[in-house]
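Hello,

I think I submitted the adenosine-5'-[phenylalaninyl-phosphate] job twice by accident. Can you confirm which output corresponds to this input? Input:
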Amino acid sequence: MIAKLNGIGEQALKDVAEAGSLDALEQVRVAVLGKKGALSEVLKGLGTVTAEERPKIGAVANDWKRKLEGALEDRKAALESVALEARLQSERLDASLPARLPHRGSLHPVTTTTRRIIEICAKLGFDVMTGPEIETEFLNFDAVNIPADHPARDMQDTFFMGPGVLLRTHTSSVQMRAMRSQSWPVRILCPGAVYRCDSDATHSPMFHQVEGLWVDRDVKMSDLKGVLSTLARELFGAEAKIRLRPSYFPFVEPGAEVDVSCFQCKGTPQSGCRICKGTGWLEILGAGMVHPRLLELAGFKDAGSGLTGFAFGMGVERIAMLLHQIPDLRLMFQGDVRFLRQF
Ligand code: FA5
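Support: Only one job matched these inputs. Its output is below.
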């Protein structure tokens, strides 16, 4: 019986050493040490041996059991470490590969253009002032010399919110707020959204304007021209020129539409220029000398004679379109990331 046990033990040791996987090792364990394993089967015959031999056989069986358990444990650890190594190899990460970065958001062209205008005008001494988008009919129209029966009211198709309340149609609505909230001199810049019932490739129902207002003693048309020339050069490049064409806005007198020389053909009219359509000029804003009636309404009588001012108002989207050669203004409000990612 002892010889049989030794035979089983030695064979089992070999099988353990040769087991190539954890599954195979488990099979070896069950086959030798399991309830119905080879060792148990032999020990079932213990009843047939003498009382003297029984403890000797038991000791040999226990010895093999311990040996085999130790060998199984060692082999298991070895196989596990091989499996772990294989897994580490197959899941190896190359930490030196460049990372795939998430797309970073960027500022909208309307924001960057507005900020640029503010930055340039700040150097010329303009402070930023804002006003509400929901405005009184009085401040949007009457206070800037557009009374109820004035034909100019039709120039800006208006969204009314209720009697006497509307969505402001221009940032000129902030002019009277500024003049009434502070004493002269006034030198402010008012950026913000405005609304008109208007929609095509160059008109949007909601768009942005920046209004400039400078009221002081002896402010002249030449000062207006100087400020706007600087603004144009800073926005469109050192060679940019401006020209003023007579125009009408009820809140200024005289009034002008201001054009900037086309940055594409440098103000030399070329029939093929798609930007300025061959004229050499691009319209960017309205401007003029503040109408004396507005200064009166503002209560600036104490200034005595010589108090004058100028104002200008520009469409931010139009300027952004020119700066970035955007063909359709509506693209700016469609939220299409393919468009927005370009900025
Ligand atoms: C005005 O709104 C005057 N308040 C500007 C002004 C201020 C003149 C101070 C004199 C003194 P106008 O309606 O032309 O003017 O609009 C000014 C600019 O806004 C236009 O030159 C254009 O660039 C832009 N604009 C007008 N309507 C739209 C629209 N629907 N969509 C996008 N931009 C527009």
